[in-house]
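Support reply, case 0932

Customer input (verbatim):
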Amino acid sequence: MLKFILKRILVSIPTMLAIITLVFFLVHMTPGNPFDGERALSPEALAALMHQYRLDLPVWQQYLLYLNDLIHGSFGISMKYLGQSINQLLFPDNMGGFWVTLQLSVYTMIVAVPLGIIVGCYAGLHKNSIFDKIVVASNIFFTAVPTMVTGPLAVLLFAVTLQIFPAGGWGDGDFMHVFMPVAILTLAYTPTIAFVTRGSIIDVLNSNYIRTARAKGLPTHKILFKHAIRPTLLPVISVLGPMFAGILVGAVVTEQIFTLPGLGILTTNAATNRDYNMIMAITIFGSSLTIIFNIIVDICYMLLDPKIKQ
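Our regenerated output:
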């Protein structure tokens, strides 16, 4: 197990280096600079800013200095929020940045994962029933309708018309402020989990060893929980890892709709203001999370199916 984990970590290092190199040169080789705005700076002020952020150096030299900062645990200084550390913006001491997005993601996964698995198992056990068709239709509907549509509709209905929940903001992270963003993300991800679970359990129930168990007269609940649930979860787990990482760095639209002070706001500001260091930090952070969760998924695979280890 330890050897496998170390091997995966060693393989991920050149992957991360390739991502960092590619994104760094793509970002820095685009025309213009972060200080090209509607209000032109004086040549002296522009030169001072370019020197402060090392943008007056050759790109290869900027790249090596950036790698040196990364090795020492620093993402650099923001070019949007002048003088502020990227580390401090991403991981503030008080609530905000990553901590808001992390809470949003954890709450979503706590609701979506068990709900999706239970719904998917029930739909698979009752294949072609009305419930099963609703599950399939829901997956198609919520895959086609993004959160940028469901979010404003929820605000219109529950905040403006019925005035049950606040239209936006994080408050103290209390239930009233968290409910709608979590509900919208849950609606977006639960149908996918349910659909994958449904397909997986249908395949498992049609396998030979399940037929043998049925032929021996084992009750359905014993077949399900003793023989079917473990192989059913394998494809579901492969979806959950990238899904959680995707929510952590990709809930940009949801955070914008509900004006949450998470990574979504920072990502949007970084893209629109060409904040090179923030773009690099969010890219590295997102890639790291994806790699970490993929390793966790592989470990879970090994625990559920020891044959994979071989």
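We compared this against your earlier run and they match. Two observations from our side: The chain is about 75% helix and 0% strand. The two ends are 11 Å apart (CA to CA). Please reopen the case if you see a mismatch on your end.
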